[in-house]
Amino acid sequence: xxxxxxxxxxxxxxxxxxxxxxxxxxxxxxxxxxxxxxxxxxxxxxxxxxxxxxxxxxxxxxxxxxxxxxxxxxxxxxxxxxxx
Length: 84
Description:
Layout: H1 3-23, H2 30-51, H3 60-83
């Protein structure tokens, strides 16, 4: 893993986490938490879309969309668990 790929992961995670934070109210994580949610969301989104047999293509924009979908799903799960 190169430094460039780590930087791309952090940027994609930050953008996806911020988008998910805007879309899902009630869960505030802070700056570092937002990036971590976005990075974990990338894995969740990739798994979720492959399980649904959905392909949105390649490229950085599609990676951000996939990570945002996963991050939203992750934050909805966290919000649901906090209510219990």
